[in-house]
């Protein structure tokens, strides 16, 4: 095998290892900051699952995003869109029950442009596609 092919293959494997390590750390650590919320959803078996997620805002509305490759929570919440959200700090009054709703392509572009991720963040995450869901207060 050509030396350059081996070097390139080693670099790709190294990069994939960095992405896997970063995503694994995020999954276990579930770091919290002022833009985070705690999402409680119900899986297909009726079990309550809690995830710490980033909150995104655009045009006065609240959004959740699948910003990472691991996105089982995102698929699950689309199957069962009734969720409970807990905010900390000044947003605590907004905590409560919400319904998640898919968004149209034009809204997706607006939310994407309003909430960019740094190049370093995208590199660490492995450039996953971003998907968004709007949070609508339940009645």
Task: Give your account of this protein's structure.
The chain is α+β, with helices and mostly antiparallel strands and about 140 residues long. It has 4 helices and 6 strands, in the order αβββαββααβ. The protein has a single domain (about 5-135), classed as Pnp Oxidase, Chain A (Roll). About 35% of the residues lie in helices and about 30% in strands. Strands 1-2-3-6-5-4 form a 6-stranded antiparallel β-barrel. β2 (about 50-60) and β3 form a beta hairpin. The N and C termini lie far apart (about 65 Å). The mean pLDDT is about 90.
Summarize the structure.
With 139 residues, the protein is an alpha+beta fold.
Question: How many E strands?
Answer: 6
Which structural category do the helix and sheet elements fall into? alpha+beta
Main sheet summary = 6 strands, antiparallel, barrel
What distance separates the N and C termini? 63 Å
Q: Give the number of domains.
A: 1
CATH architecture: Roll
Q: Overall pLDDT, averaged? A: 88
Q: What's the name of the CATH homologous superfamily?
A: Electron Transport, Fmn-binding Protein, Chain A
Assembly annotation: single chain
| Poorly predicted parts | none
Order of helices and strands: HEEEHEEHHE
CATH top level is Mainly Beta
Count of alpha/pi helices: 4
Choose one word for the global shape: elongated
Instruction: Give the spatial strand order of the biggest sheet.
Output: 1-2-3-6-5-4
Helix content class: 25-40%
* CATH topology assignment: Pnp Oxidase, Chain A
Strand proportion, as a percent range, falls in: 25-35%
The value of Rg in angstroms is: 17 Å
């Amino acid at each position: 095998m050509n030396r350059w092919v081996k070097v390139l293959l080693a670099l790709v494997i190294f990069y994939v290892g960095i992405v896997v390590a970063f995503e694994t750390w995020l999954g276990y650590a579930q770091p919290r900051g002022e833009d985070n919320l705690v999402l409680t959803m119900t899986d297909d078996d009726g079990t309550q699952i809690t995830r710490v997620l980033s909150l995104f805002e655009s045009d006065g509305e609240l959004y959740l995003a699948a910003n990472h490759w691991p996105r089982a929570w995102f698929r699950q919440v689309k199957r069962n869109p009734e969720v409970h959200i807990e905010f900390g700090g000044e947003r605590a009054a907004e905590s409560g029950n919400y319904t998640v709703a898919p968004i149209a392509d034009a809204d997706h572009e607006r939310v994407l442009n309003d909430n960019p991720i740094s190049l370093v963040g995208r590199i660490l995450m492995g450039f996953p596609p971003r998907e968004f869901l709007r949070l609508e207060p339940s009645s």
